[in-house]
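To the wet lab folks,

You asked to see what we're planning to order before we commit. Fair enough. Below is the target structure as tokens, and below that is the sequence we designed to fit it. If anything looks off to you, flag it before the synthesis order goes out.
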């Protein structure tokens, strides 16, 4: 994906993958093989999911991940052959894994990078297979017809500010669309059942079932570290970016379920096979460096407000904070900026809500022609301001921010609106991706000395510990393999 796709904020059906009307009849139990109906549904959903999460990652590590995934999936009894399942590694910087009916299983390369052995990889994919085997998506759909396979999992700011209203629902979907923050939220009991099934599959395949607990520990630690690095005091905020909500509360349960069972973990094999895995943002989709977003191919950059954090997606960059939320994206442009701004407002409002700015003003930002407008909306918790700020980059290319904040507080985004700029070719060339570098600990190496090689300006030791599953008291031994994140073409 080299360009941000056009974002139509009311056109969420392609990513929502609603199951309503598709699941007539009795829902099969967890021991029943994949039905033809489920296989057809999965085949329909598959290309849409790939598009939502950056496409398939085609690095040399993908074939290994696929092999492990198919091996664990066969243990479920959903299919009697590895060919019954499709296992995809997604080119996404978000920690996520999920599966859909029909034997389609997904993990992001970022989540794989967080793992420390093959048993953990098998555990994560086995957990997702467990959701499919237990038909959790169908059961959730049967209870709530408004649920979608990729529905908004958890309240986001627009929903909080606007309540259960048409404009609130439209904005909630619009601000998630293309952001890779679309997931299916399962109940706690369903998550625990998927953990149990995943542990059962691990045991059948000869893996150490405790891997389910250790990978949840790593995910919980990563959530906490992300919150710390982003200046948040709530480590659970990214839960809607993962199909593993609240991993910290499930760690001990998973470890208890594994009990005294043992098995292989294949740590060195796993680390050797994922060496060189792309880590973090793919420059072809733009990169986040602290509060700055740079897209070397689109040649643009902007800076998020102080106290906000960003999530990079396939069709939008989400900017999130306590006092507002925004997205940067693009839409069809015919050379008229005022018409462009008004069309974005129309898209945000949708069919049920006419959203019109009080006026559209013109200005110039860092040499770029720009236009902006504001509309005040009545929500159940008070009024909010919706701002659209657009920039012309060429006669047929424009980009825009769509932002929402409590009434009178849209100025929190002003520094960001004024930071949009065109970057030089030399700046673009300087954007180098990060990748995993698996190294062997030498006799003189320490956590500090190895962490100093991490390609970050801050939090090097903390990042190294979480990446390698080392708690605050964890130590290293000479000859042990560990992961580093380094710069590499």
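Sequence we intend to order:
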């Amino acid at each position: 994906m080299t360009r941000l796709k056009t974002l139509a904020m009311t056109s969420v059906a392609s990513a929502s993958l609603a199951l309503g009307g598709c699941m007539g009849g009795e829902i099969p139990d967890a021991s029943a093989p994949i039905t033809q109906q489920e296989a057809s549904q999965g085949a329909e959903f598959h290309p849409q999911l790939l598009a939502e999460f950056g496409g398939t990652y085609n690095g040399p590590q993908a074939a290994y991940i696929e092999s492990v995934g198919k091996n664990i999936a066969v243990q479920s009894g959903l299919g009697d052959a590895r060919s019954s399942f499709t296992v995809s590694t997604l080119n996404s910087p978000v920690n996520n894994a999920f599966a859909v009916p029909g034997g389609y299983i997904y993990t992001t390369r970022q989540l794989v990078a967080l793992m420390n052995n093959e048993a953990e990889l098998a555990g994560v994919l086995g957990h997702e297979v467990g959701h499919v085997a237990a038909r959790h998506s169908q059961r959730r759909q049967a209870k709530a017809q408004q649920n979608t396979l990729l529905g908004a999992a958890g309240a986001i700011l627009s929903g909080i500010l606007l309540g259960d209203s048409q404009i609130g629902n439209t904005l909630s979907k619009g601000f998630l669309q293309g952001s890779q923050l679309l997931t299916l939220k399962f109940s706690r009991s369903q998550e625990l059942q998927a953990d149990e099934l995943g542990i059962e599959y691990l045991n059948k395949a000869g893996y150490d079932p405790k891997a389910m607990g250790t990978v949840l520990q790593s995910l919980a630690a990563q959530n906490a570290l992300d919150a710390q690095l982003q200046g948040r005091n709530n480590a659970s905020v990214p839960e809607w970016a993962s199909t593993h909500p609240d991993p910290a509360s499930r760690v001990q349960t998973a470890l208890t379920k594994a009990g005294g069972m043992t098995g292989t973990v294949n740590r060195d094999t796993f680390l050797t096979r994922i060496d060189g895995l792309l880590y973090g943002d793919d420059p072809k989709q733009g990169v986040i460096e602290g509060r700055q977003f740079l897209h070397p191919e689109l040649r643009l950059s902007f800076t998020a407000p102080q106290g906000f954090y960003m999530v990079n997606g396939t069709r939008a960059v989400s900017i999130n904070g306590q006092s507002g939320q925004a997205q940067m994206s693009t839409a069809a442009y015919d050379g008229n900026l005022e018409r462009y701004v008004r069309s974005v407002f129309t898209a945000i409002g949708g069919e049920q809500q006419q959203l019109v700015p009080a006026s559209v003003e013109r200005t110039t930002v860092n040499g770029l022609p720009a236009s902006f407008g504001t509309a005040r909306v009545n929500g159940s918790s008070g009024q909010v301001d919706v701002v659209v700020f657009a920039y012309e980059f060429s006669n047929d290319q424009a980009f825009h921010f769509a932002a929402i904040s409590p009434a009178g507080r849209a100025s929190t985004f002003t520094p960001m609106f004024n930071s949009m700029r065109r970057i030089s070719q030399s700046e673009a060339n300087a954007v180098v991706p990060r990748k995993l570098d698996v190294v062997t600990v030498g006799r003189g190496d320490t956590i500090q000395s190895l962490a100093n090689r991490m390609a970050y300006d801050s939090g090097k030791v903390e990042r190294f510990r979480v990446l390698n599953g080392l708690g605050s008291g964890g130590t290293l031994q000479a000859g042990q393999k560990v992961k580093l994140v380094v710069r590499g073409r």
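Structural context that might help your review: Residues 1-24, 144-170, 176-183, 235-245 have pLDDT under 50 and may be disordered. The longest strand covers residues 382-394.

Thanks,
Computational group
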